[in-house]
DNA sequence: TGCAATCATGGAACCGGTTGCTGACAGACG
DNA sequence: CGTCTGTCAGCAACCGGTTCCATGATTGCA
């Protein structure tokens, strides 16, 4: 492996001149610059990232923490981040931090303390207790995607609004018995779930249906939604419409309805939030959010902050658009 | 930020002694060691990874390349790798490399050349053309998960066997018209697909059914399987059983069958390969592989190789066990 | 033509660790 | 008691770059 000293030697200049020529900083004559560049490419010179980082203090690496990666939303966000960083020549170091796990504690103390990155993107991390302090202590800019409400620099949709919008869609179709399916367990999504539930509650109240509010807890997974929906649809609480906390739960509900012989949308309307990759196949009406875009935005904002640390970028909530497909229909008058 | 010099000063020793005491290398008296350790913890000393890497040549970081992360198998493998590395104190740098994309080319040249890692795990990477050379040029140990056949150090199941086993299960139930659903496009999975198709072909031939071999191409996704199955089941090629290249395709087929009013397993048996997280919910009979385990194994093997570069670890194919659920049944005699 | 400002370059310090070499000291042994 | 061996600690070089500072060469302007 040839270092910058070899390049300098070959170009007949000093290390410092070679460095300046390669990085473009400082003054260099055109002639030397081309000579150095030629020497570098002839030798296949690649600067040592460690040496550069040690000398400059910046790593050209971004850390990403998320509770897990094998869930549609997180994987999509990660793709978005990755693509953006790659384009800018940044590396991405991934940290897994399942809530409550001992590994998570290690990540927050040991791994973050190493400061292997110039900045951190926290996806779906709702820091608890001393984790907040530990994040501060990292001393690097942080951008969150769907983080806790009170964190700074959070990218995401307005969940209350999205959920309210979804509920209003059902109300507009004449539905009155609308159940909210999902959340209620102390899982990762806690905060997002809470906001979406809130939006549903608000829309119902505004429609004078406070008394009809029905929150059915369910794990936030497809099978979880399936199981919860089977229960819900089999007993006398059966609603005419379901708003699911996310598409996976919604799809679980659709599958449950089919199993039970309940026609969707004729006898049951279902609406989700996400626009999951499976949504189209199930003709699911949903509020589309674009997690890849969210990831990309988070990455862009973070890189921007690194360049201009003093003028913080203001982050607008991202839009969530209603996509009407074929899982929702006007309520069957006989069901009222 | 306090460096090792500060620690040394506080402990009243030299930098080198502090370094030895902290790393455990070389001789240090018990007394100095405790003093140094105390000083370090009082100062909250964390060694600079860059300085360590620069001096020692090792990064305590592992690179992971995969074509994409938002696909069940890859996400699971990644979880497995992550957990194992975390436990050993290693960082993980993720590289996304969709086949054929210009970004992939950059990853293979620019990003790999930086050698930010001690070793590389390539998941589902089937290197083409000069990529093989570029991987060699990295000069770091590489372990693959479901890579190309001729690569060294590949972790994975025996796909031919798994597929053969699945086919034999259907044959054992009396099925004769068995279709193989999936693959056929020049996608990521090409090699795995090919092997699984091969296993199916072999089992059919052995049963004297070469003439009945029916390969139906399909994108390797749930919606893709759905669409292909709708076609297949609607026309006169309709088989009594389907072997899908993976569970997502299999589940797509089950959903398609339901839509078409074809009872599973009464009128159609479906078997998959994977044991996807949704498999249980769809009562899918499948050959279970455990991607998390594969990821973990790959990580262990790689770390082992780093410690003992000269005695290569032999990697056995991982087991794939048949999980019989309720998507397969004896063939309906009237269909023969 | 003289002087200041600007440009191009080299030398050396520095980032923060690790490690080879050397010497002091202590205990073991003849 | 002298020498040998092994432990412990410090000095200084080194990993591979960046960057401050000094110097000499140019150029611009009065």
TrEMBL record, chains A, B:
Keyword Transmembrane helix: no
PROSITE patterns: HTH_LACI_1, HTH_LACI_2
Molecular function terms from GO: DNA binding
Protein name according to UniProt: LacI family DNA-binding transcriptional regulator
Pfam families tied to this protein: LacI, Peripla_BP_3
InterPro entries the record matches: HTH_LacI (IPR000843), LacI/GalR-like_sensor (IPR046335), Lambda_DNA-bd_dom_sf (IPR010982), Peripla_BP_I (IPR028082)
UniProt keyword list: DNA-binding, Transcription, Transcription regulation
Organism name: Microbacterium marmarense
Keyword DNA-binding set for record: yes
